[in-house]
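Record 1 of the preview.
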Amino acid sequence: MIKRVFDFIFALLGLILLLPILLLIAIIIKLDSKGPILFIQERVGQHNTEFNIYKFRTMYVKSQKKGLLTIGDNDSRVTKIGYFLRKYKIDELPQLLNIIKGDMSFVGPRPELRYYVNFYKPEDLVIYKLKPGITGLASLEYRNEVELLKKADDPEAYFINTIIPDKLQYNKLYLKKRNFFFDIKLILITIYRVIVK
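->
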């Protein structure tokens, strides 16, 4: 209950305080490339059910037809402003709406595509007791995931066979350790790493 109240209040405050910046970003996205401002995609959330996640669009329209994974910082599908938004995680800010709606929390496992969830083992689905989060243990550990994928001979296989199982272990660890103060710690670490990156 405390977590939900915290999430709702700070997500709402964040939207209000950041509104001028969000509007400016929206204008720049429209000027930078054709397409919608927001990227809306179906992801798997709490109780293993789907919801629509909101992000600022950082890729050219129809880019996902060329693959689900983003490979390296120089992925040609990413727009000019998209590189900046991704580097500082600004593209994630619209997920404050997801938090207000109750789809997400500030801290939790990152919401995955159903395609990749289908590779989970039955015992891995325990993580869906939780709401997905903007940040979390796995997110912090794999903050440079796109660069790891870039170095892999087969990025898709590396993601499925190495990164997914490892992330699941971090998400299960968070399930055991989670409490309000641990969430605050992870939020502060996330902010610090985004700033000093």
